[in-house]
User: Fold this.
Amino acid sequence: MRLSTVILPIHRWSEGQKTWQRAEELGFHAAYTYDHLSWRTFRDGPWFGALPTLTAAAAATTRIRLGTLVTSPNFRHPVTLAKELITLDDISGGRVTLGIGAGGNGFDATVLGQEPWTPKERADRFAEFVPLLDRLLTEDAVSQRGTFYSADEARNIPGCVQRPRLPFAVAATGPRGLRLAARHGQAWVTTGDPKIFETGTPEQSVAALRCQIEKLGKACAETGREVAELDKVLLTGFTPDRGRPLESVDAFVDFAGRHRELGFTELVIHWPIPDSDFAADQQVFERIATEALAQLD
Assistant:
């Protein structure tokens, strides 16, 4: 099992770069950031762009993997996104993972002046977005006419440093999204079952996650792929456990052990932010980063 962190882009780079460098020093497998234009309770405070932040992080680090959790079609187009990702992959020396999902009904869904998409339209767009992006990142020239997204002689030379392209970590829980993960993903991402976040129990969450992994296995079987080929990533903080796993090393080891048994290969924990839903003791957090996984062996 690998341990990663997600760093919200809320600090000016003169301060924020220290966090990304510290994440590398602590030995995290990857450091991700959210790809939103604004987000929840942070909407009225500082919030910087994901891809420029990751580009700066690539220049400020040398080993740690970098990525989004997650990018969505809400304000992205595959053609422009592909160009930016190829550039970021080059600058980082091939250390980028693209977390990608269908998006939701938050501020990103309306900030460009459009009406929020229905769940069906989000799924339809995602089903078109991901395969086109896959082509754009693996082929020198792409032309494709779609219902929502098109490309006309889109050039992406020389392509990604990582071959055949940088890895996709596809966030999905529904059948169509899981099929996309099975076809195009190198990893699958979940935050758990949102229906039980408020009132459910940790035991119910484990059962829901087990069910999700079983559905992923079926989707992989339908595409002729082994589910073991995909990394399975849990973005923590959105299950009924909430922040309790970060209260102590022992609490995290227990949490990590239960989820490793389910088949998860990577856990992602939020870098502490005081006075927020992601508040945690920084010293305990750093002990978890450096000590916890060794206790699972």
About this structure: Residues 202-222 form the longest helix (21 residues). Residues 140 and 185 are 21 Å apart (CA to CA).
